[in-house]
């Protein structure tokens, strides 16, 4: 039974919600949430890792116990603990957790005192005034809840890495039916994906649809027709499959890749020529003048080929008309990683193991940037430990050939913008990544000043995950990125695009803002395990969506040049 990573993650999230509602030990709750993030972000399916006899307990946040549970889930398709919890606490308690003002504590209260188990129960309870007098439920909370219950459920979006695991498995499954490609926001590499739009070149659309409907992970079939089939997978993600003939493959790919706004801009150009552009091709009257490939359509329209990541109608069409599109950075341009953790703090591998994995990717360098002392949970380094680590790195570098471990730190930015380590420690390092890991709720002015103040420290090379967002979990902190990017330019400090699947921070818009001001960017993985170097791909996706060229990304440079750029 093919259990996808996203399903396992969703099982762990539900378990965490229910355990929390039950009032279980918060450490246990957190462990399940952490494991969910790890599983969801893996560059490979858990199933294939198990098949290759990989030790899952070496992954961040997954101990022996959880590794065993994951293996059980893959074998049985069920998570026993979750099944038990659901039996004990039936209803929609998990769904209720997404309502405003309703945390596990209040849900437990509703459950115990008012017997609320479903969203409908809750609606009725509010109508009948049963929440009056319940501890913590004032009229304001009640009003908010009533309003939220009236609203249609917000469209759920999936992190790109989660969608990718589903998409890749599905493409492999459908491959024998024709040429298969995933279009839509997925192909544009948006940080989140609403649904998967899959095209298959085939004259037998019905047969392709039949095959999809027979896929193991299908939970529900929404529509099935001769050229289009729509299903929902067990992870909740919707799949729109379309069968298209070869002659209009390019036109269909272009149309369903979108974005809608980009399509409209192209259609307007076609109209100027008195042509018609749709998902079947580019037509002059009834005659198809292009359609088999995207390239020939762009060419006929007088445009340079526009990479999918740029197709957002943010000025790319005008540039393509002039033949002035930027040459976007690729994964192959990357020569090293500038944000890497080891088992000295919360990483899972030794410095030497991380270095070996980076070198195996073809890199020439990596910056070792473990946490600073304020991160007590992660065993952050104090000045004495930094000094010891420096000696260890010197020893390792003496042994390594064609590879350099740069000495570094990910230093916490304190509440007032000072750093968590003294300058005399920082001055001994090659790379200082400065990050906010606390006081996420400061007002905008204070948060912005705090980060700019950190950049004023001349030893800081890069601001790590500059907005602090965790996709779907934590909003970016209130920070004025216009001011931060301007200050970065003025102070000659780099900003990071962090490739962790739940971060992707800077996002595309902010990366483009930084680029347009001349700020240099580091695309890094924040790897806590050897397998996480693969996250570079997601960082590069967002860099490309921000129109970055190799020249604007500092870790495309050879080491001597990089060292010059890092000096301030
Ligand atoms: P998503 O799924 O919300 O992450 O975003 P997309 O961009 O994948 O949007 P989706 O799945 O609704 O549609 C896929 C593509 O199909 C979209 O990017 C452009 C094209 N498309 C959909 N509806 C229209 C439309 O009304 N007009 C035009 N020109 N194109 C459309
Ligand atoms: Ca889509
Ligand atoms: Ca769609
Ligand atoms: Zn960090």
Explain briefly what this protein structure is.
Helices cover 43% and strands 14% of the residues.
Tell me the structural class.
alpha/beta
Shape: globular
CATH class of the largest domain: Alpha Beta
What is the mean predicted local confidence, pLDDT? 93
Beta-strand level of the residues, as a percent range? Answer: 5-15%
Number of helices: 24
Number of strands: 17
Which fold name is given in CATH as the topology of the largest domain?
TIM Barrel
Number of domains: 3
Distance between the ends: 55 Å
How would you characterize the largest beta sheet?
7 strands, parallel
CATH architecture of the largest domain: Alpha-Beta Barrel
CATH homology superfamily name of the largest domain: Metal-dependent hydrolases
**Low-confidence residue ranges:** none
Q: Radius of gyration in whole Å, from Cα?
A: 26 Å
| Small molecules bound | 2'-deoxyguanosine-5'-triphosphate, calcium ion, zinc ion
Strand order of the largest sheet: 11-12-13-14-15-16-17
Helix content: 40-55%
